[in-house]
Every structure is written in structure tokens, then in C-alpha cells.
Design brief:
The chain is mainly β. The protein is 0% helix and 46% strand. The strands form 6 sheets. The protein has a 4-stranded antiparallel β-sheet, with no helix packed on it. A hairpin with a 6-residue loop joins strand 20 and strand 21.
Length: 300
């Protein structure tokens, strides 16, 4: 099955008067000097990843009719299609040393995880099954990939791939869809999204004990795309807690939650990525038929 980004957005408009549960103001966080990096009108540029020098951004674009991986120089806005083929290539993630890209492609008939050099060369297939394999994310040491697969029981579970050894370890085994898993900077925890008929919340898992904690606990709202900051103090995510998907951050206790963007109408703010120096935040804003990339300074 070819993945379409719109399939994963799961729009569900909620009444604006819904009351926030477990809310505590985080007065120190704010975004400033925000700028629009991409300005498509009828296509989508999604899943942005900043390079370590904050001068380039990696993302996926369907401008050509297929999902392609693009690297853009932020100052000049010059774009290079590094996949440059007729397949769908999406869900890109940069290795910590910025030398490799993990991504999903349908080039072999269904969605599999691949690895390639940032130049677009040396493509290597990592998964080989008839299931759906998506959302690859590098560990902070660059040795592992977390990804999601329906290989086990039909629902999306979390798997870990050892890049050097070529071995896979299954980390969750439930009927729920558990997606977007990422390691904390110290690799002692994993943050992920857990979805079932009763909830769509952000969870954290202790790597050693496999104990889990519901961090957002908002059963009336859709959450998505969680990521740690580079110090492991905060988790940034998107939520429909107060209406359209907007960007929030929360600490590891589940308190000190603050909304950082306010999407209106049919807009959607999602897919946050934090720069290596914790100074910048990039995210997607859906407006009409287009998905744009924004970059902001991160204060506090």
C-alpha cells in the first residue's frame, strides 16, 4: 500500500470550549522570529529535519506527483531533489552526524525502511516483509533505528533495528497503534504515540523495565508526532486539545504544558523537529491543500 500523508492526519474537529485537563502554565517557553521556509500552494512539504549547522533542511515533497526527498539551503532557498526517482520516498530522518538519511520507500512494491547517504547515493534496504514499515528515527548515538511495523499482529508496533548488526527487536506487542517512537537523549526512555478507540495520547516508556506512562492523558483530543528536546527536559508534540492541531510542549512529569502555536480554522501545526543546539524549532503548517515548513527561534 502506498502511504499518503493525508491518511495519517486523522482530522477530528473538536469544540473550542473543551476544558484542558492537567494544565499548568509554562511561562518560559515561546517562539519568536518565525519564518516560512517553503511556500507551496497545491502540494505538500513535510517532515522537516534541520542539519546540525541550521543552514539546511531536509524534507519530503510531492510537488512532482511522487514523494521525493529534498534538501534546501535556507539562506538561498535553493532546493536539491536527492532521491530524484519515480517512487514514493517519505518519512525522512537525519543521522546525528548528518551523513545518512533513513526513509521509507515503495520502490520494491510496498513500504520498507531504507538507508542512504545524504548525497542520495548508497541506498540500502533494511526491512524485508509484506507488512507496512514506517517512521524510522535514529537513536542519539546513530547506531539504532526505531520504526513502526504491522508485521506482528496487524497493528503498528514499535521495533528497533541495529544498523551494524542488521538485527531487529520488537519493543511493543499490543492491539493498539504505537507510532512515532523516539529515544530520549540519554536513551533511557522512548516517547511515542499510542492510539486506540479510547485514546490518542503521548506515552513514555522506560527502556529497561518497559514500564509506560501516559504523559498527555487527553482522551477527548488527538495528539501526535512527539519529540524530545536535545536536553531531554521537554517533549514537543502536536495536539487538538483546544481545537485544530497546534504545537505544545510538556515536561516529563506530565505537567508544565504550554501551547506554542495557535492553529485556526482548518489549519494544522504538526511534525516538530528541534535543532541540535535547542535554538530552533521547525514544523509543518497545513493551510488548504498545501503543507508549508516554518522555522522559529525557540526561547525559554
Amino acid at each position: 500500500m502506498i502511504f499518503k500523508l493525508s491518511d495519517s492526519l486523522r482530522h477530528r474537529m473538536l469544540p473550542a470550549f473543551l476544558v484542558c485537563i492537567g494544565w499548568s502554565a509554562d511561562a518560559g517557553a515561546q517562539l519568536s522570529n518565525c519564518s516560512m521556509l517553503t511556500d507551496p500552494v497545491t502540494y505538500e512539504t513535510a517532515f522537516p529535519r534541520l542539519f546540525a549547522d541550521n543552514r539546511k533542511v531536509l524534507y519530503q515533497s510531492n510537488e512532482s506527483g511522487h514523494w521525493q526527498l529534498v534538501v534546501m539551503d535556507i539562506a538561498s532557498k535553493k532546493q536539491v531533489n536527492i532521491s530524484n526517482d519515480g517512487f514514493n520516498n517519505n518519512f525522512p530522518d537525519l543521522s546525528p552526524d548528518n551523513k545518512y538519511i533513513a526513509f521509507v520507500s515503495d520502490r520494491d512494491g510496498n513500504e520498507e525502511i531504507y538507508l542512504m547517504a545524504v548525497s542520495g547515493d548508497s541506498i540500502r534496504r533494511l526491512t524485508r516483509n509484506a507488512a507496512r514499515d514506517i517512521h524510522p528515527y535514529f537513536s542519539p548515538d546513530g547506531k539504532l533505528l526505531l520504526y513502526n511495523s504491522t508485521a506482528g499482529n496487524g497493528s503498528l508496533d514499535i521495533y528497533q533495528y541495529d544498523i551494524a548488526a542488521g538485527t531487529t527487536t520488537r519493543l511493543t506487542d499490543t492491539p493498539d497503534n504505537e507510532t512515532c517512537a523516539r529515544y530520549a537523549p540519554d536513551m533511557k526512555q522512548i516517547v511515542y504515540l499510542r492510539n486506540n478507540d479510547a485514546e490518542d495520547d503521548v506515552y513514555v516508556m522506560d527502556v529497561n523495565t518497559r514500564t509506560i506512562k501516559n504523559l498527555t492523558n487527553t482522551p477527548f483530543a488527538l495528539d501526535g508526532w512527539p519529540v524530545y528536546d536535545r536536553n531531554g527536559k521537554w517533549i514537543y508534540f502536536s495536539s487538538m486539545e483546544a481545537g485544530p492541531h497546534s504545537i505544545y510542549r510538556i515536561d516529563l512529569s506530565g505537567l508544565n504544558k504550554k501551547r506554542l502555536t495557535t492553529a485556526i480554522g482548518l489549519e494544522e501545526d504538526a511534525r516538530v523537529y528541534i535543532s541540535n543546539d535547542n535554538h530552533y524549532l521547525v514544523y509543518n503548517k497545513r493551510i488548504g491543500r498545501a503543507i508549508r515548513i516554518y522555522m522559529c527561534e525557540l526561547m525559554g
